[in-house]
Structure formats: structure tokens, C-alpha cells
Amino acid sequence: MGLQRRSIARAGAAAALLGAAAYAIGPAHAQSADERAVAQAVEALAKVMLDVDRARLESLAAEQLSYGHSAGKIETKKEFVDAILSRASAFRKLDLSNQTISVVENEAIVRHLMTGETVNPSGQVSPVKVGVLQVWQKKDGNWLLLARQAYRL
């Protein structure tokens, strides 16, 4: 009988701990329609940076784009698009992780970790591992990249 009471006590303690953990974590955060749309825009930008498509790059970036690299270089929309098209440092692999999206009215703040590889025209491969902050703006129903800043980890 003592063994049974101990088992019940352990089960009760485990249930209490699981309940407390679930309370502390809270309910799962459901993405809003805007958050999903921003996530799709971020994914589309990553894909087009690999595929290199001028029209698609231009359609995802706001005219006022400020595109910051982790080394400190800042580019306008035209400079950003031209740099990707030049393939001077082409992405051959690109992965985004640990992404968060916060939508505030018609703007969205996105943070993620970006890892991958670039290759230059001579074939030299360089690893990429940076943190990224992006600001997206909703204009005429479309999410456009307004600002981006990468930073070294």
C-alpha cells in the first residue's frame, strides 16, 4: 500500500510541475495574417537572393531601401539589386533561423540568424553567419523591405 501512495504522490507532483510549466510558457502564439505574409516575403527575398532575379528583387524592396551589411557597408535599393545581380559575392546557400516577427500597424520588425555560403567569381567560398534586423513596410497590400542591417555574431 505504501508503494502505491508513493506512486500516486509522484504522479501528482509531476502533473503539478507540468501544469506550472505550461502556465509559465503560456499558450502557443498564433501568427496573424500579416505575420504570415511578412514571413512569406522574408522567405521570398532569401530565395530570390539565391536565384538572382532582378524583377523579383525590385518588387520586394521599397524605393527608400537602406540595406546594411555586417561590415558596415550601406546600399540603396539600386546598389543592393546591382550587387546581387553582379554575383561578385553570390549566395550559394542561405538558411534563416530563430526568426521573430513583430507587426505594428503597417510596419514589421523581423529578426533572424542567417547562415550560409557565398562564392566569388574565382570560386572562393566564404561562410556567412550573421544576425539580421529587417524592417518591412506594407504598401498597397504588399510587404516591402524598407531597411535591413546585418551584424556580426
Please provide a written account of the structure.
The chain has one domain (about 35-150): Nuclear Transport Factor 2, Chain: A (Roll). It starts with a helix and ends with a strand. It has a six-stranded mixed sheet. The model is unreliable at about 5-25 (pLDDT under 50). It is globular and about 45 Å long. The chain is an alpha+beta fold and about 150 residues long. The chain has four helices and six strands. About 40% of the residues lie in helices and about 40% in strands. It has helices at about 1-25, 35-50, 55-60, 75-85, and strands at about 60-70, 75, 90-105, 105-120, 125-140, 140-150.
Topology of helices and strands:
Elements: H1 2-25, H2 33-51, H3 54-60, E1 61-68, E2 74-75, H4 77-86, E3 90-104, E4 107-119, E5 125-139, E6 142-152
Provide a quick synopsis of the model:
The chain is 39% helix and 42% strand. By secondary structure, it is an alpha+beta fold. The chain is globular.
The secondary-structure element order is: HHHEEHEEEE
Q: Termini distance?
A: 58 Å
CATH A-level architecture: Roll
Compute the number of strand runs.
6
- Helix fraction by DSSP (H/I, runs of at least 4): 25-40%
Number of helices: 4
Number of domains: 1
Mean pLDDT: 86
What's the CATH first level?
A: Alpha Beta
Q: Tags for this entry?
A:
Nuclear Transport Factor 2, Chain: A; 6 strands; about 150 residues; 6-stranded mixed β-sheet; alpha+beta; 4 helices
